[in-house]
């Protein structure tokens, strides 16, 4: 600390206190040492900055809010399109978690079945965003923009989590501060997908990390809305290019439901071992997959 240490104190009682804070910080480019303390209805902002004339100034701002300021640890974002068969079981598995510090944001992506009506049964527990059908990437990004959590989990609507899923993934990231996301094994129907430990070179060759991983919000780059397939692989590669890596939890923590249509579709691995590009014909699903692989590889120079 320097000898010239002044103290500034201000108090506010406004709903838009965070807007005021943002403007205040913008005016002090040399701001550092920011510390936030939440006391129910009062948010205390303590910081220090160096003014143009030298010295050190300690600022203390008290923001009074008419409502308690709640910042959940995890924001769970669910894109939902025609998910009447699975959405309730998915949500119930979240409420059954042993870890409770979360918020749920469901983006109803233009569903034309009973998804909207079913979501109304949970309206006091979740945040519902209704939009025209724009695709899963747009829906995920829309939910991300509304999220307040320190961590993000993009949960597909056909997934049922085991009761300790959130706690295990959260603890894994707490114990490994240098990694940006944690992923686990899962069951798809009656088949176990064990996955592999994180390996950058392997990730560059093939997609093997599931979308529904727990991610540090500060490291998440957003989904590329122009990528219609393998968007999770594209996102992990984008993070890898920024030096962000993951860690595997060697446990089955989720069950993915079998669906005729929707986000979760699977074709046996051996189908892709056939050299389709040298053959005059390939199944439509396989061709779309191979085209998606080529698109992502070209984007990332692989």
Radius of gyration: 23 Å
Strand count, sense and barrel status of the largest sheet are:
9 strands, mixed
Order of helices and strands: EHEEEEHEHEHEEHEEHEHEHH
CATH topology of the largest domain: Spore Coat Polysaccharide Biosynthesis Protein SpsA, Chain A
Shape descriptor: globular
Which structural class fits the helix and strand makeup?
alpha/beta
| Name of the CATH superfamily of the largest domain | Spore Coat Polysaccharide Biosynthesis Protein SpsA, Chain A
Amino-to-carboxy terminus distance: 51 Å
CATH domain class name of the largest domain: Alpha Beta
What is the β-strand count? Answer: 13
Number of helices: 9
Helix content: 25-40%
- List segments where confidence is low: pLDDT < 50 over at least 5 consecutive residues: 1-20, 27-68, 261-265
- Percentage of residues in strands: 25-35%
Characterization of the model:
This protein is α/β, with parallel strands linked by helices. The protein has 3 domains: 5-64, Signal recognition particle alu RNA binding heterodimer, srp9/1; 74-256, Spore Coat Polysaccharide Biosynthesis Protein SpsA, Chain A (Alpha-Beta Complex), CATH 3.90.550; 269-299, no CATH class. 28% of the residues lie in helices and 28% in strands. The protein has helices spanning 17-26, 87-95, 115-120, 136-146, 165-175, 200-205, 231-241, 269-273, 284-299; strands at 5-13, 32-39, 42-49, 56-64, 74-80, 102-109, 127-131, 151-154, 159-161, 181-188, 191-193, 214-216, 246-256. The strands form 2 sheets. Strands 5, 6, 7, 8, 9, 10, 11, 12 and 13 form a 9-stranded mixed sheet that branches. The relative contact order is 0.12. Mean pLDDT is 78; it is low at 1-20, 27-68 and 261-265.
